[in-house]
Amino acid sequence: MYRVIKNEGAARCGELSTVHGTVQTPAFMNVATQGAIKGAVSAYDLKDLQCQVQLCNTYHLHLRPGDKLVKELGGLHRFTGWNAPILTDSGGFQVFSLASLRKIKEEGVNFSSHIDGRHIFMGPEESIQIQSNLASTIAMAFDECVENPAEYKYAEQSCGRTVRWLYRCKDEMERMNALSDTLNKKQLLFGINQGCTFDQLRIENMQKIAELDLDGYAIGGLAVGEPKEDMYRIISAVEPYMPKDKPRYLMGVGTPGNIMEGVGRGVDLFDCVMPSRNARHGHLFTEEGIINLNNAKYEKDSRPIDQTCSCPTCRRHTRAYIHHLIKAKEMLAMRVCVMHNLYFYNTLMQKIRDAIEAGTFEEFKRNYSEKYDTRI
Amino acid sequence: MYRVIKNEGAARCGELSTVHGTVQTPAFMNVATQGAIKGAVSAYDLKDLQCQVQLCNTYHLHLRPGDKLVKELGGLHRFTGWNAPILTDSGGFQVFSLASLRKIKEEGVNFSSHIDGRHIFMGPEESIQIQSNLASTIAMAFDECVENPAEYKYAEQSCGRTVRWLYRCKDEMERMNALSDTLNKKQLLFGINQGCTFDQLRIENMQKIAELDLDGYAIGGLAVGEPKEDMYRIISAVEPYMPKDKPRYLMGVGTPGNIMEGVGRGVDLFDCVMPSRNARHGHLFTEEGIINLNNAKYEKDSRPIDQTCSCPTCRRHTRAYIHHLIKAKEMLAMRVCVMHNLYFYNTLMQKIRDAIEAGTFEEFKRNYSEKYDTRI
What we know:
2 copies of one chain form a homodimer.
Chain A: E1 2-8, E2 11-18, E3 21-25, E4 27-31, H1 43-48, E5 53-56, H2 58-63, H3 67-72, H4 75-80, E6 86-88, H5 92-97, E7 100-104, E8 109-112, E9 119-122, H6 124-134, E10 138-140, H7 152-178, E11 188-193, H8 199-210, E12 216-219, H9 228-238, E13 248-250, H10 256-264, E14 269-271, H11 274-280, E15 283-286, E16 289-292, H12 312-316, H13 319-327, H14 331-358, H15 361-368
Parallel strand pairs in A: 4-5, 4-14, 5-6, 6-10, 10-11, 11-12, 12-13, 13-14
Antiparallel strand pairs in A: 1-2, 2-3, 7-8, 8-9, 15-16
């Protein structure tokens, strides 16, 4: 299912085969929280943006329109019109960040919907059932994502529970995949490593979950408040214990620099709302660094956002026009900016893959990881 | 420049040749107020929507980003990326509807910008200079649009002034088109018939402005508060006095039914914010009538908005998905709905042209003019 094609140090490029198509890794997954990329970008646009994987959020889709309805309509692929791999998160992250009146117990979590206050219970079985209804390509295990910095005692306790939940997720996934009316009977399950910023806890947790021989492994609970040095240290500490023949996913990360550092430490998959969110505020990634198109200096700038970029936006529109659209509060501003930033991320991953294949990734990272993260 | 191809009663189909391409009439002009269609639709999308003419608003573009800046950047075509005809209105309508502290005198109008309160003066010369800077294909004469119902005395007075302004517009247009640094030296000028709902005033006004031998004639000051019967009566009254060999434009109109009634009375060009505005609220035109996608009954509806429609939205998305996008407040909802409604309008015009060519327009109008305007 996953095949490493080439290594350069810990960095690797590879191929993840799924029932919905093959993903060239390292890859960035484009976040379509509610079944659509924010900023009026559709699944049909994603093809022009070199996107390989669409990521949808289980919590949001469970609340609205409801996973049963999505199932009735043929699953997320039919619903959104995306015919390539989709990853759904477990809902855990949002339960812990968005929902209110949260109560965690061994079975799962009781919480109130952030939309209408409705009481909902979600445990490992519910999360997997919902993801099975959504019929994503890859489902994520239901976990607790603890904010950093955390107390060691709580982190250890939470970690233990998340491992027990993982066993239940695996059982439930096997059960769901065997049901005759399940839409995607080959749904994959990724486990999630937790343990906050405690190296030993992270390692022990990774060793435990590696035993389950899942389809892939994620590192969760990073980029949630800790300094990036801690994040990099944890990835380096955990990586040797992650199965080499399984894809590795660093959840919710990050800036172009973060991604390159992750790849350099052996990570294959990433996701982050940053490119689309920043774009909606006029902050655009370019070969030279990050520009802010709100700035008056772009008022008469007839160049594209990035002169080296071939995205639909850069092929068509000038900085001056987009600056005007932002000032005029035209929705089109968000769309063209989001398209540019996603294309930047997706083609960055292509450049990373090419560099690993050519054995020049370290050099590429040295040249660009800081540059791409810098506001100019 | 304008050639009638076929008549059916007063209805006619024809061809308007301009320096930016040929327009098949009757045509609907798609409104891109600030240089972009509201709802994240770009000039590049308009081609897929069968749009022939983009309409931009002089008042808005003068205020932001400024017509001099647009000129510096190569004019509206380069600025928005639209390489077919563009019509700009004169700014008059917005001066009278949006601006505050308005003071009309013989020279023109003093007013305050609705954006920042800045004092601005606009008269016929200024309006034409701005439109020349924007470099649209067709410029509109600067007029006063009086709200209905109006006092006869005021209507008569205003009408007289608008005629005097028209002479000044024509002179200024000739002057601008002769300047060496004018971007579009073949900019066309349309005059505007006014006179509120007073038939005789309208006719006399039309006779006077017809003498100027302009490139086209519009009927303005309708669809501004009067019953539609009054609107139809005025069009019928004025039409015999409009030059047969010039395109006729009914400003700011209207529903599909209004458009068909206008065509039946000899009108060639239309514009209206209705299709895009209604779309942004989830109200969609279909072959069966107008549907409201906010409605819960569409929650599980896996059909496209209109089963007979080939627009990008109907080829891709279900009512259920779009209903979800609306409920989830995803910007993509507006984009796909606006695209559908504009396509509906633009292809309606194609159907009207085909019907006139086939001599079946009256039948077409009888069958559809009420149906298309009805909420179902």
